[in-house]
């Protein structure tokens, strides 16, 4: 046994092939030994021959013994493996099977050896060996779970591990099949145990996602029967520690166990359901679990118990409830005994701790006391529960709001014990009231807002036949000027001051609201004093008599007021407001700083305005506009120096309409931009036509709306029109309102510069009517000013108009600007303007607006030739 067997008989590299080949050699060797023994006893042999034979016999004996030992060792080791072991050829043929395999499959070795592995697993696919050899050829082992079949047809699960093996010189594999039946049975018993245990069990993966929760966990978290693990959402719960402090996600026991790989034992957590207002207390133990070969937990299992009931009498529980402002209570109906936690007692604030239901109810107000008592009686009679919001007063007189939840004990068949929570919701109620007030209040002025006043008016008009309600619609005059000149901050300050003045004027006789922008409403009851609305309107107008100051600036801001009454002028809030608005609009356009009561005639005029706006929208397309031309005349010599194009509108439904009736509508609707473009093009076309008639180049002045000027394409449009009719820029004069003076924006200066480069004459129209920003006037590249008819009509007799005309003339001279006077209707006016140094004027003294042919006839007269003076 100490010798080394010859390599041709046994080689470790031969594997099992060497072992099995030695079995045949063993039989031959035994016969050879017997023959040598008999031969060695032959007396006829000489000593030398006999000695050689003895040596050969000893060598053969030793060799045969080692072969026998190797064979026995292989078989002993092969059969000693407790799991079924099979050796398979490359195509899946079974070459050998150990005793455990015969026992497991309940078949004799001869029934399996030489058969394909399908004999043990008929469901294997025809190419089942391909993935096995792919793994083995890479140097990996191959592991798979399959179900194998015994000789009696029964099945059992196995886990098969395969590895490379050389068998009888051939490429083979050895497969060890481990029976999983007991493990599966254990897992099944473990899963059944997890489902029936009364402790909650939750399993989370590395991403902290819940992958399993048992029935107890679903029940504790309030997830109904038949729901899935996905329905278990911890986002609905606010989690606090034992002291009531909200916990971060990383501090939770399961997350700590995942992060540290250590068991987190018996941690007390409070879970407060945000929607159901329910507080649970749990003790939680979290155990990390590692995958084979892993260094970090693959998942964590948390076990927890509901200890809410056990903590009822705990001081720790009371402190946590106090932090959450939630108290607990229990009522034993049979003995009329009440138990309250310390926090519940603090919330109710009784003189002494209540010990019965009436003492507990003493802190509540009626009818809430009656509601609570009725709810308790219903639970006793029918079971179930209740959820009430109740109001009460503490001993010190401070009011409070509480939310009381109660239900019968589930284990009490008589419903004689009712338990629940009691939460102080005073802060929430005060916050709700604050929000309600804010929702009804204008944040800038503190007045009622639009929604609030509509609701108030709607309430008062529930019975409009008997409601004697009056409504004042107040709009501030010149508010836009302040807002544009001084900015929105000053505008806001003006609105706040105006609101204060209106409030002071109205006093307790009406409700004041800001309806929007610079518009205010006043609601008053006119049943006792029919003249009250007009009296309040006068009081409001009087409140605006003093100017408004903003730093060094002072503005005279007035108000226009419309009055409407219910039920005469409207039966619904919107109708009443609309009619008061119509009256206000009329007051503003007739005479500012006044009030106007609504009349059916005003409604008719409003309807006319709507009709004008509707027709105006289609007027350009329907070719309803035409231009007339009012001569601008040299006041000294009487020669025509230019003309102003004035628009006229002939509508097939409304007839001839004056510009003052439709221009303001066009400004409001934005149609003025399209109309202005038409005027510009038509005026240039007419200048070209006069030129072609031999009348020279007539400079025509065209009014440009601020809306046109505010666009980005005015200079480009003017350039295109001049090019279209081959006119020089000097043939066109553009008249702007004073509003452009306050637009000190780079775009404003850029537009003026571009127009001046074209040679276009630039004039400020009606100078002195608006906010004359002299500081901006000197910086704009303009050519002249037009003196408004509003001032020329009063000269030479009205001292104020004379002073204004003198001032404007002085400004024009000092800045080197041309000056044209509008509205010259008398010889006295002409003489005054000449003495003032005004060179050019226009008005009925010379001619009204003329048709193109009439204007051409004037030009053809020798004394009326166009003068460039």
Automatic annotation (TrEMBL):
Q: Name one Pfam family in it.
A: PAS_9
- Start and end residues of each EAL domain: 609-863
Q: Which residues form the PAC domain?
A: 386-437
PAS domain: from which residue to which, for each copy?
Answer: 70-123, 186-222
Q: Which branch of life, at top level?
A: Bacteria
For this protein, the record's InterPro entries field holds: Biofilm_reg_signaling, EAL_dom, EAL_sf, GGDEF_dom, Nucleotide_cyclase, PAC, PAS, PAS-assoc_C
List each copy of the GGDEF domain by range: 467-600
**Coiled coil (UniProt feature):** none
Spell out the NCBIfam families in the cross-references: GGDEF, sensory_box
Q: What is this protein called?
A: Diguanylate cyclase (GGDEF)-like protein/PAS domain S-box-containing protein
Organism listed in the record: Pseudoxanthomonas sacheonensis
